Amino acid sequence: MPVGEDVVATRAKRSPRGAGVHEASVGRVVALSGGAGEPSRRTRSLPAELTSFVGRRREIAQLTSRVATHRLVTLTGPGGSGKSRLALRVAAGVADRFTDGMWLIELAALSDVDLLEAAVCSVLGVREVPGRSLRERLIDELDTSSALLVLDNCEHLIEGCAALVDFLLHSCNAVHVLATSREALSVGGEMAWLVPPLSSPEPRQADSTKDLLGSEAAQLFVQRASAAASRFAPTERNAAAIAELCHKLDGMPLAIELAAARVGSLSVPQLVQRLGDSLALLTGGPRTASPRHRTLRATLRWSYELLDERERILLARLSMFAGGWTVEAAEAVGSGEGIAAEEIVDALGGLVAKSMIQAEPGTGNAVRYTMLEPLRQFGHELLDETTDVDRRRDRHAEYYLSLAEEPMPGGQSAWLARLAGEQANLRVALGWLLETHEAVSDQRAEAGVRLAARLARGYYWTTYGITEGRMWLRRGLAQSASPNSMRVNLLYEAGWLANYCGDYPDAIRLLEQALRLAEQLADPAGEAMALAALGHVAMHRGHIGQVRALARKAEALCARLTGQRGVSDLRVFLSAVALIDGCLDLAEDHAAAGLALSREIDDPRCVALSLELLGIVALERGDHARATGYYREDMHLQRVLKDQLCIAYGLRGLAAAAGLGGDRKRAARLWGAATALSEAIGLPLSEFDRAHPDYEAHVIACGALADKAAVERGRTMSVEEAVEDALAAPSHADDVVAKTQRNPLTAREREVLARLAEGLTNKEIAAALVISVATVERHLATIYRKIGARGRADAAVYALSTGLIPPA
């Protein structure tokens, strides 16, 4: 019987890349991976370029050659020099050389080096497996792969990035890494490449627009200025001023773009004069800073000084966010002391108009805002200069705690969807709350414990990173030693995750602590949950004597409790014990009671386990129809939880039910899918699993395993296809598979294709399906490959011809 949920690849939303060739990191770990639980192997999707790419032809040609011959190439240079954009353009140009895919891993928002491996695994879609470390799982996936990893913004995690890259290069002979950093990683075999400035015109030699536009810096300025002010155009009269401006800015892409954004309100000569004064005043920076870095800082300061007072205040406070934010978050964190909540929207609009932040479509109809990494760091420095910094950190953490604790009308699915794009902000909040040591840190630690425990209770960690969840829970336990019910809950959740990972000694230690503390506090709910979890551990290990001893305590406790949280956990455990004893009626009674209670208190984990136990009872009785109903309901639930363990058990149960019903092809197909998924996630059979029930016996009895083609068909199904097959009514299952064979696309790919055929742009498709533009592009690349389409027109014709959308 499953005792937890498996990891599903993080699919954090990402923003469009920043304009031009500047440093475009938005401070997030970006997953370009596939659907839930599906590794993103053979993926070559990279973020779309929403603005034109200017220049760099020589650099691209040289770097393309270097990436092919050197396994580690690091683009170095100060923030704003265009490292990220150049790396992405080079990666796109070498895609065909890396047959197993390429992935972008943005690290700007990752402040904790302990999470580096988890972040890389989430982007690659690498699932955690009991008994295997994250590094071992990376090797499992990349061992013989011809793949390119693009690590963006390594400088603040330089030691950890260097160690991880060195490990990967020595362990995976065909993996290449293209990194961006303000300094080299200093790893053996590294080729460090200093990104040069854009070519700039000589002010006295730019007598005509033709001379002017021969330089990359001037081309970039003109393009961006024309976008900011439609009437702007280079002329003989302003050519010299444009040349002088680009020359003063040292060809720094981000500095040029910030200046170009002001063309609507200032003429080019005015820009030259004002910026010249700023540069003169701000050249006295540290002697160790490069001239180009001082120029960028001067440009950022100049752009900042041109903001009004509200915008200046808000810009500094917005630097608290990582990975973007909503207007509600900005109001909660940015308001007060100089700017009212009702003024936030106007101030955000002003910052967007002045290219200081970017706006993009978010979940539903919401707008999500992001800030380029150099600007975010500049804003941090401004905030650090004030006495307001701790208050803003507290308000940021308070907002995300309230977001996590606020119930959602749509239940578990809506709650997980709301937090899906907030992983970077949750990390910032947890880091602040659980790692501060001031006099008020007890209050912060308590808030951090609440946040870590709430995320665990909501299955956030089992969906977005078990290793990370265990780390935060450990830190919460270390920071808050108060003997209260919150600590009981924290110990329980930490023990559950340890059990899920197969770390039984740690699971037992934590759960026994939870049980003892719950007994001391007379906390029956905590006692019930800890006792039931210990029973699952003992059952999974085959320690039947211990199982029976715990069952006696569970029965006594269950008799004392009615309707409280934890009773459903006890019922699930006692149902499994009854199955061990062969008492089917008692097992059914406990499971049915557990199902009713867990539905009442909205505990989807216990709902799933109760359904699986009821399915086992039905199989033991030979009732294939009822078993099918229970397992199909469980599979519907897994569309939300995306628990790979439960999906594997559900597929096994449905295969056994089909075998009992004599449906050979369906039994063979589902058995193949269950076997492949079990192998992929390293799912071992516990002693309980081997005895209750013998799934394979039902499949063998109907002769299903003799149908090698059907078994192999099941083995080649994606998880999404297998779930779709499992959810089809038995009488229609073969029709579903036939349609799948005629149409090789997954359900999500068909949704994307349908909207493409309706004429939607990639951005509109992303908004309609609540996914990122990068994910849409990845799906389209896969769709084109599967159906042999050469572009959007071919794909639209395919959609019409297959009946995916009705003809007009």
In summary, what is this structure?
By secondary structure, this protein is mainly alpha-helical. Helices cover about 60% and strands about 5% of the residues.
Overview of the structural elements:
By secondary structure, the chain is mainly alpha-helical. The protein is built from 40 helices and eight strands. The strands form two sheets. A five-stranded parallel beta sheet has the order 2-3-4-1-5, with helices on both faces. A three-stranded antiparallel beta sheet has the order 6-8-7. Helix 7 runs parallel beside helix 9 (253-260), helix 13 (327-334) crosses helix 16 and helix 23 (504-521) runs antiparallel to helix 24 (524-541). The radius of gyration is 29 Å and the shape is globular. It starts with 56 loop residues before the first helix and ends in a 7-residue tail after the last helix. Mean pLDDT is 81; it is low at 1-44, 281-289 and 735-742.
Strand content: under 5%
Q: Share of helix among residues?
A: 55-70%
Radius of gyration: 29 Å
Largest beta-sheet details: 5 strands, parallel
Q: How would you describe the shape?
A: globular
Strand order of the largest sheet: 2-3-4-1-5
- The count of DSSP E runs of length 2 or more, i.e. the number of strands, is 8
Low-confidence stretches: 1-44, 281-289, 735-742
* Class per helix and strand makeup: mainly alpha
Determine the number of helices (DSSP H or I, runs of at least 4 residues). Answer: 40
Overall mean confidence score, pLDDT: 81
C-alpha termini separation: 50 Å
